[in-house]
Amino acid sequence: MTMNTNQDGVPRWAATAGRRSLAQRVAARGARLFCPSKRPPTDRDSSPTTDSADVRWAVRQRVLREYHTATLAQARRGSEELVRAGFNTGDVPYGYRAQRVEVTPTGRRARWRNRLVMEPVEAATVRMIFVWRGTDRLPTKEIRRRLAASRYPAPLHPETGQPGAWTVEVVRAILRNPKYLGRQVWGRTHHGKLTPRAAWVWSETWVHPPLITVAEFTAANRHQWLAETPPSDGDIPARGA
């Protein structure tokens, strides 16, 4: 048996005749196959000349970057459209439950989206948290203690769906969430950091039952910068007021 035959003695060109390569199969499905993000090192890396392989590698990297940028832009547009239409993206806030609704965009197949509906017991707890913070001026540690001591229903664990525990971080997340105003909002953070309010995307009108008013939200967040309030509300006090 030679290198040009398989173990049965059949020539390799005959054994593989009519078969398509992986790149051909991927291309037939309308996709493209890219090379790894890093070119493997070679003995010629120290050479000052650039061969055709280096040029092809550079071109592929540029295509990958452009593809990545276009994909991110498309994903952002999709998220903005969902938010403006009033659908929830991300985790469901405490005080609400997700209601699955079927939507059929023009010329596209039906899809399932989430709208927020009020959970009465948790909604009452949210209102109490804002009263304690905005009216009674209690610190978040005291609010957490009261919630745990009075056995208010704790938020459900996002992975298990079982009741979790009240923590200072959970209380702060509730106090800083503008979705309790009845509108959807997206883009408040980027890589874990707050973004300018002008960059946020809001639903045009109320899209789910509000649990608090703008005045209550502002009173509970008076020490936070004004990115925590909707840009269209004219009764928000100026910074430092």
Shape: elongated
How many DSSP-defined strands?
6
Q: How much strand? A: 5-15%
What average pLDDT do the residues reach? 77
Question: Can you put this structure into words, describing what you see?
Answer:
This protein is of the alpha+beta class and 241 residues long. Helices cover 35% and strands 10% of the residues. The chain has helices spanning 12-15, 22-28, 52-84, 120-134, 140-149, 168-175, 214-220; strands at residues 96-103, 111-118, 185-186, 189-190, 193-194, 201-202. It has a two-stranded antiparallel sheet with strand order 1-2. β4 and β5 (193-194) form a beta hairpin. α4 packs across α7. The longest helix has 33 residues, at 52-84. The chain starts with 11 loop residues before the first helix and ends in a 21-residue tail after the last helix.
